[in-house]
Amino acid sequence: MAKKDDEGKKTKIEDEGKKLTDLPGIGPAAIAKLESAGVYDLMGVAVLSPPALSELTGLGEAVCRKAIQAARNMLDLGFVDASEYERRREDINFITTGSRNLNNLLGGRGIESKAITEVFGAFGSGKTQFALSAAVNVQLPKEQGGANGKAVYIDTEGTFRPERVKQYAEGVGADPNKVLKNIFVARAFNSDHQILLVDKINEMIKNGEPIKLVIVDSLTAHFRAEYSGRGQLADRQQRLNRYLHDLMKLAEQRNLAVVVTNQVMANPAMMFGDPTTAIGGNIVAHASTYRIYFRRGKKDSRVAKLIDSPNLPDNETVFMITTNGLKDIDLKGED
Ligand code: GTP
Ligand code: MG
Fold first, then answer.
1. Strands, DSSP E only, in 253-324?
2. Which atom of ligand 1 lies at the shortest distance from residue 167's CA?
3. Model-level pTM?
């Protein structure tokens, strides 16, 4: 798998990931209390007031004030000017979906790095197909809509299909066997395993693998199955929240794109609008940068709808899943 020959390369990126343990006055006991209250990272501490942190940890307010200040310093929470902001966005990669309309829905160039794109919809709506074709397209050179990188596919449902990957590879004129070699597939057997794989990905990148896309298909299935009781909902949401934070951190620090798929459930309590809701509720909705809802349309088409994007209008479009890729359909003559 990963190349392990070059130890020297590792050091540079390692000190980026400052943790709660780096805060002055915050020991293991305090960290355990913070974690059980849902505070896992420096940002979680940085936004607290000294009395609030004191209440959570049982530590004195003076200690808490120092810890909060340290967290804020480490995070560099200051303002950046607009040109600096622009510079930070300059290195964002885009992965084409294969459909110009779908790319446009996502802002013009496809799936973005430093972001989580959530695709949700009923079974058979095309979520896995979207993910598989992205795992191929990420490998294309930048001029052709790729990110010149490799993909990681975390498969929780056993639906990864190498045959489909090969077909999509043929669709973009790439060597199917080479394309398969550039996709690292891991079957996650439960949510713990799924969570652990994030560390594994970090390790692979440190070892020099140019991973530019991480797919989690599906994000929620294990969580949903493992925490099925009513009383377990809060625990489930807390773990899911933490997992999504880890994924976002990975996306930002490594400049890669994260795509997660999500099932929908019938929501009988909802009387207006579409009675299907994504699993995971607000936690997933807030953590995802882009959310697209897939449903079957007329004939063999798929309708994709962008929902609650921070910087793009809510909009919808139509595309097709074909043997060799996601494609536009001729909209003339449709309603
Ligand atoms: P779940 O994982 O069950 O929730 O569904 P999903 O949203 O992941 O569905 P998926 O992406 O697997 O879509 C399956 C659908 O894609 C099929 O019903 C077909 O309509 C379409 N599809 C899959 N493979 C092919 C293919 O080789 N050719 C064509 N034309 N369509 C395909
Ligand atoms: Mg699927």
1. 257-262, 264-266, 276-278, 290-296, 301-307, 315-322
2. 27
3. 0.80
